[in-house]
Design goal:
Elements: E1 3-5, E2 18-22, E3 28-33, H1 34-37, E4 45-53, E5 59-64, E6 75-76, E7 79-81, H2 89-101, E8 107-119, E9 123-135, E10 143-145, E11 149-155, H3 157-166, H4 173-180, H5 191-200, H6 205-216, E12 222-224
Parallel strand pairs: 1-10, 4-9
Antiparallel strand pairs: 2-3, 4-7, 5-6, 5-11, 8-9, 8-12
């Protein structure tokens, strides 16, 4: 069972953290306080999401802490956060992973997407989001930072998609976009990661996510960012 820890690694304790502002091509155009980036109008900034799987292909979901300003208590992909200055998507994700879960693993970059979504009348996410994949060796080593994550669970493809179809409102919108674009993943990933992607890149994936994406994005404010190979 994962242990819960308190500590300074909670991002919500970093009230003056600055995020990287970007244009639509993911070029840095400045920095801004994290809180200001997440107001209702939002400011487009750089972020990442990590999808961790076990060797059997189950995806590790994390439940956001109720202390979160945005989407408290909702289920997310494994870790979501923001790169710092001079970090790549991979290096920032590999730095953040042990801070939130107490574990490390090799990560591969898959793709990035842009999206803008509001949370009630409280704030929003307006991000260019890099997506990464990894395989966790031993989930028993996970240690949760309680101000970030309140619970975890591992799910199969069918169990997750059935739950998303039934209750889209309990899932974070950026995770749904990341899952939708799995078929767009880069090919220069490890063989083990390719096996996981093959398990999840099923023909019915996009169709089964359409309704939940319309629920969160009635104006369809999400798109894949094309990149040069």
């Amino acid at each position: 069972m994962a242990k819960n820890l308190k500590g300074p690694c909670s991002e919500d304790n970093q009230s003056m953290e600055y995020l990287i502002l970007v244009d639509n091509n993911d070029n840095q155009v400045g920095t801004e306080e994290k809180t200001k980036c997440h107001l209702l109008n939002g400011k487009l900034h750089r972020a990442f999401t990590i999808l961790l799987f076990n060797k059997d292909g189950k995806l590790l979901l994390t439940q956001r802490s109720m202390n979160k300003m945005l989407w408290p208590g909702d289920w997310d992909g494994t870790v979501a956060s923001h790169p710092r200055q001079s970090e790549t998507y991979v290096s920032s994700a590999e730095r953040r992973l042990p801070e939130e879960l107490g574990i490390t693993c090799k990560l591969d970059y898959l793709f990035k997407f842009e999206y803008h979504v509001t949370y009630k009348d409280i704030g929003s996410e307006n991000e260019v989001c890099g997506t990464l994949i990894g395989i966790i060796e031993d989930s028993k080593k996970i240690r949760l930072v309680e101000d970030e994550i309140s619970a975890i669970k591992s799910v199969t493809f069918d169990d997750l998609l059935s739950e998303i179809e039934k209750s889209p409102q309990i899932f974070c919108p950026w995770m749904l976009v990341a899952l939708y674009f799995l078929s767009e993943s880069k090919n220069n990933v490890t063989d083990d990661h390719k096996k996981i992607l093959k398990m999840w890149n099923r023909d019915d994936l996009k169709n089964r996510l359409e309704t939940s994406l319309k629920y969160h994005f009635p104006d369809h404010q999400w798109e894949l960012k094309k990149e040069c190979n």
